């Protein structure tokens, strides 16, 4: 037998769902951290237009964290300076993030010593950057109880760090570098390079004399010219669909003629 639909119950559920979504949107807007509304956080610097999305990850040592302007810090992003909260780390910033940086959801930047991220860097979700690594010199002591090693990290401007990448202590990444998803980076990476793997290795590099080596497999995308309106783009898309349909019809006609022969 068909199940009777409870219209009133369905209506109440939709209403409750809308209320929950509206309330959560308000919580996200209200809980986000900006220079104008820092809440309990007292960053060493936070630029205009920068926003830390709510809910936040672990954040401490903020007096030694300097955030540039127009940065987007995703939900559940960890930003820490120092080994633990409430330490006096001296007069200089420990974690420096330049202008226009995007840190994807769930990323971690753990700066127990100096970490610098250049301007216009884009991080995918769940990237892990740490200036500290465990040591295992003493074979008789648990690794977690041995004093860790610390080395500064520098990430140059304009880099793209893929989802799930790990940047280890001592990494020196040049400008406009692509770090492939899931890579583990240590050591020095030159400018204008693509690195991939664990440990990450250079798989492609650009130089003024030779360009990209190995050569790129696809042509670069063509940016939209200035002054083009949304209506013109829609019309162009419709033309592309018509052209694709004509090509498909032509291909079918050729196949049909070939079959008759």
TrEMBL record:
Region feature (Disordered): 209-229
Give one Pfam family.
Hexapep
Q: Which UniProt keywords apply?
A: Acyltransferase, Repeat, Transferase
The parts of the chain that form a coiled coil are none
Molecular function (Gene Ontology), one example: acyltransferase activity
Q: Which InterPro entries match?
A: Hexapep (IPR001451), Hexapep_transf_CS (IPR018357), Hexapeptide_acetyltransf (IPR051159), Trimer_LpxA-like_sf (IPR011004)
Which family, according to UniProt?
A: Belongs to the transferase hexapeptide repeat family.
Protein name as it appears in the record: Acyltransferase
